[in-house]
Design a protein that fits this description.
Elements (H helix, E strand, L loop, with lengths): L1 H14 L4 E6 L5 H6 L5 E5 L4 H11 L4 E7 L11 H5 L2 E3 L3 H9 L7 H4 L8 H13 L5 H13 L5 H13 L4 H8 L3 H12 L8 H16 L8 H11 L5 H14 L2 H5 L4 H4 L6 H16 L5 H11 L5 H23 L7 H29 L6 H27 L16 H11 L4 E6 L4 H12 L4 E9 L6 H7 L6 E3 L7 E3 L2 E2 L3 H9 L7 E5 H5 L3 H10 L2 E6 L2 H5 L8 H21 L5 E4 L5 E2 L16 E7 L4 E6 L5 E5 L10 E5 L14 E2 L5 H4 E9 L6 E2 L2 E4 L5 E2 L3 E8 L7 E2 L1 E8 L10 E5 L10 E7 L11 E9 L6 E11 L10
Parallel strand pairs: 1-3, 1-4, 2-3, 5-11, 5-12, 10-11, 20-24, 22-29
Antiparallel strand pairs: 6-19, 7-8, 8-9, 12-19, 13-18, 14-15, 15-17, 16-17, 21-23, 23-27, 25-26, 25-28, 28-29
Length: 837
């Protein structure tokens, strides 16, 4: 008690600067405390019928001295108080518990009732300290102010009612109610509900916080869609601020999941046009409804591609996007596929034109289909995407793969020899590409990725070009026929006089020597140029080397062939061929990592190529996809889904026959290749992933040349703020457009920015949005991002002042941000009637 009295008196003398302080001991029980108190520089005097003398001393004799005047007994009535004039110009110290609390907190005495009526709140020193901090930051101007701060202390919030509600919602999501029970114990519950009713329009005979939370979700949802809401517009604004606050993401998700079933949101969504849902994300059921509607509309082709791509882009800002990211990605790739197919002209007048068109644009259809299948599988929601999948699958297999290869087959049928004018054949790879470096006495590393189809290499090209100081170019090359591993691998070596082994093994001889296995290939490689130190190795071995080992390897060898097998290892097995698209993604990651690994070992010249491509369709094949007749001949040496090796092979309907000589090989082995994309029946092998034939997807293979630059060549897109004509904020929100000035490309990368409204002193006065600017469209309008910002209650303190819409960028991997762009606005709101939404 004595310590609190001393502390209270010190505040009056020292903190508040009073020279004279009166102390009335109404209950005549604090004489001991008065006698005990010691205050440096303060004279203690007692009022005992000596008022005139005291006044003369304090005002005339010692006009600058400090005095504590104690009177045992109650304060006299004003008419009987001879020191009233002095008292009115000074301070009165009250030593009851409430008065001590008021003094400790620095709360004006006239708001004492806000303390006296809630004694249980003040019996915690921790709560007192927190409330004192609030008072120091912003002194109370009413009893309501004091009680509002008490609510914030109870809830562990930052001050205003919004933050109290947010904290209580957080506890509710965790199944806790400690703060609400403390509010009740502190006698603040009636005040709390009165504030909630005034602020958000919630009224109930027996108010309950969970009922309020349900009403908050329900009202915000219905108001967003243009309906009436149980709560007012300010409640909807508060809801959006809370839902957009990353700190409360977990609480929002938990309550949203609970209440969407209770509120029968999914039933209500059935009646809504999905287009109206696009800006909103109150419940994850909204994303599911959007997805279902998009899938149906795309499958029936009742929406245009531009709208779908725009909607998918907009949904990236949804709270639930991460949950449904792969589904949206699948929809996006399906849309691009449908758009590309609609624009494609699948005709050709020669084999050369067919290859040219495939390498220029048709490959993209294979790529988009593969990416669609990959994200559909990864999403785990194949059932949800089924209508779209069935549509894409049919269009891909029938309208593209079959159509383009039927047209291609017409050109292939006219060939006598397997040669495509204007394009390097695979068996000339070493001479045309690898030995180009050796002729200049430059070292080279060749990575051969089994089944690296041209479209996969194109994606790999873009990934490599995204790396700083890396460059790459891609050219098509024509695979040897049949397009299978043993022949493809032999063709990539310095070869001569290639021929088929006739023991049924599918093996290939080069000058009579085996080409199978690393030792055999290394021996042939070393013979390519006299004196070359050659090395053949597996990709796993190269990846596991330390940097020093890699440098030593490259120092000691002139030409290195690295064999990578990810795609074929998965696709060529019936048990795993359905995982082909995931294997392709892994292969691309592998190759990018391998390129980085090699360049860190001082490798400067890298070539990436393949032994063959592949055909793949996710759906099981129809009977019509198989050749009608089994091949016949004097001797069948080997039979695959896409080719037959033998002697004396009979012409077969639906198949094209080549002699070894027509394929540029020695020997008397003949080859039958099924026309177009047809497969041969073969027991126990997969049929969705195949290679060996002459389809464009199998025979157009990549030569990807990778180099390292000396200077940095990566930059980021620039982003601009497009503000309204008048830079004026008059309501609870402001809508702007953000514009990405350039499309992203391999060397022009995207940018992640944090956007929000801020006061001059840096205080955030709106919700904040983390925005990804990575639009690749050449159309400037498709690189605009509209965004609305909701002002929070902190904005009230800056009304009439200049505030700033800022785009801020994270500094490295830290949690700090620096300003990237800024635009000033004048904040002029009529806060008393501001109910805009």
């Amino acid at each position: 008690m004595s310590d609190r009295i001393t502390a209270g008196l010190k505040r009056l003398f020292e903190d508040q600067g009073h020279r004279i302080v009166f102390w009335y001991d109404a209950d005549r029980d604090l004489r001991g405390e008065f006698d005990a108190v010691e205050l440096a520089g303060v004279a203690k005097l007692e009022i005992a019928n000596n008022e005139f003398g005291l006044k003369y001393r304090m005002l005339r004799q010692e006009p600058k001295a400090r005095f504590l005047l104690y009177k045992e007994g109650a304060e006299p009535a004003a008419a009987d108080n001879w020191l009233l004039d002095v008292q009115l110009a000074s301070a009165v110290f009250k030593a009851d518990q409430t008065a001590i609390w008021v003094a400790e907190l620095g709360i004006p005495a006239k708001y004492e009732a806000a303390v006296r009526e809630h004694p249980d709140f003040y019996r915690s020193q921790k709560r007192l300290e927190r409330l004192r901090t609030f008072e120091q930051d912003k002194p109370s101007r009413s009893e309501k102010d004091v009680r509002r701060k008490m609510l914030a202390v109870c809830a562990g919030a930052d001050g205003d009612l919004d933050t109290v509600i947010e904290a209580l919602l957080g506890e509710l999501a965790d199944g806790q109610d400690e703060s609400l029970r403390l509010i009740a114990r502190s006698g603040l519950m009636a005040f709390f509900w009165k504030e909630v009713e005034a602020g958000f329009g919630y009224a109930a005979d027996q108010p309950d916080f969970q009922d309020f939370a349900i009403a908050l979700f329900d009202s915000a949802y219905h108001r967003a869609l243009g309906d009436e809401g149980r709560l007012n517009a300010e409640a909807s604004l508060m809801f959006r601020r809370w839902a957009n606050n990353r700190h409360w993401a977990g609480a929002f998700e938990a309550l949203s999941q609970q209440y969407q079933e209770l509120l029968k949101i999914e039933d209500d969504l059935q009646k809504r046009d999905f287009r109206l849902l696009m800006p909103h994300d109150h419940f994850d059921a909204m994303d599911r409804q959007i997805i279902r509607s998009l899938v149906e509309a795309m499958a029936t082709q009742t929406v245009n591609s531009a709208d779908v791509l725009r909607w998918v882009r907009e949904r990236r800002q949804s709270h639930w996007y991460k949950t449904y990211e792969d589904i949206y990605q699948a929809i996006g790739f399906a849309t691009e596929f449908q758009q590309a197919l609609a624009e494609a002209n699948l005709t050709m007048n020669s084999v050369s034109e067919g290859v040219k068109r495939y390498a220029a644009s048709w490959y993209k259809l294979d790529q988009l289909y593969r990416k669609f299948i990959h994200h559909m599988q990864k999403s785990g929601q194949a059932g949800l995407l089924r209508p779209l999948y069935q549509s894409v699958e049919k269009r891909y297999t029938t309208n593209f793969v079959l159509a383009v290869n039927d047209a291609w087959q017409d050109q292939v049928n006219r060939l006598e020899d397997w040669k495509i004018p204007g394009y390097v054949p695979q068996r000339s790879f070493y001479r045309e590409h690898a030995s180009e470096f050796r002729r200049k006495d430059q070292k080279v590393v060749v990575i051969i990725s089994d089944a690296l189809r041209y479209e996969v290499a194109e994606e790999c090209l873009r990934k490599i070009r995204e790396l700083n100081r890396f460059d790459a170019d891609l050219k098509p090359m024509i695979a040897s026929l049949p397009s299978y591993t043993q022949l493809g691998m032999a063709s990539l070596l310095p070869n001569s006089d290639l021929s088929f082994k006739t023991d049924g093994s599918d093996g290939i001889l080069s000058g009579g020597e085996s080409t199978q296995g690393l030792p055999a290939r290394e021996k042939i490689l070393a013979a390519g140029r006299a004196g070359d130190r050659a090395k053949a190795m597996r990709a796993e071995e190269a990846m596991n080397m330390a940097v020093s080992e890699g440098k030593e390897l490259f120092r000691d060898h002139d030409i290195i062939y690295i064999y990578h097998n990810q795609i074929d290892a998965v696709g060529d097995k019936v048990a795993t061929e359905g995982n082909l698209c995931r294997a392709v993604e892994d292969a691309i990651d592998d190759l990018v990592k391998l390129v980085r690994k090699l360049t860190s070992a001082n490798v400067t010249n890298i070539l990436i190529t393949a032994d063959h491509g592949f055909l793949y369709q996710h759906q099981a094949l129809d009977e019509s996809d198989f050749a009608l007749a089994d091949p016949q001949g004097d001797e069948i040496l080997s039979r695959n889904r896409r080719f037959v090796l033998g002697r004396g092979l009979k012409p077969t309907a639906g198949m094209k026959k080549f002699t070894s000589a027509q394929l540029g090989m020695s020997g008397d082995v003949e080859v039958l290749i099924p026309n177009s994309i047809n497969r041969l029946r073969r027991q126990g092998s997969g049929s969705r992933y195949v290679h060996g034939g002459a389809s464009l997807q199998e025979v157009v293979i990549p030569v990807l040349r990778v180099g390292k630059q000396r200077t940095a060549d990566i930059s980021q897109v620039s982003v601009q703020i497009i503000a309204p004509g008048k830079s004026l904020i008059t309501s609870g929100q402001i809508a702007v457009s953000l514009y990405q000035a350039e499309p992203v490309s391999e060397k022009m990368q995207g940018r992640m920015l944090l956007a929000g409204l801020y006061a001059e002193d840096g205080t955030a006065i709106s919700d904040e949005h983390e925005l990804q600017f990575d639009f690749a469209s050449e159309n400037a309008r498709e690189r605009e991002m509209p965004r609305s910002f909701l002002l929070n209650r902190a904005a009230d303190g800056y009304n009439g002042k200049t505030v700033y819409l800022k785009l801020r960028e994270r500094i490295g991997k830290t949690s700090r941000h620096q300003d990237y762009a800024s635009h000033p606005f004048q904040l002029k709101r009529n806060t008393s009637i501001d109910l805009d939404f």
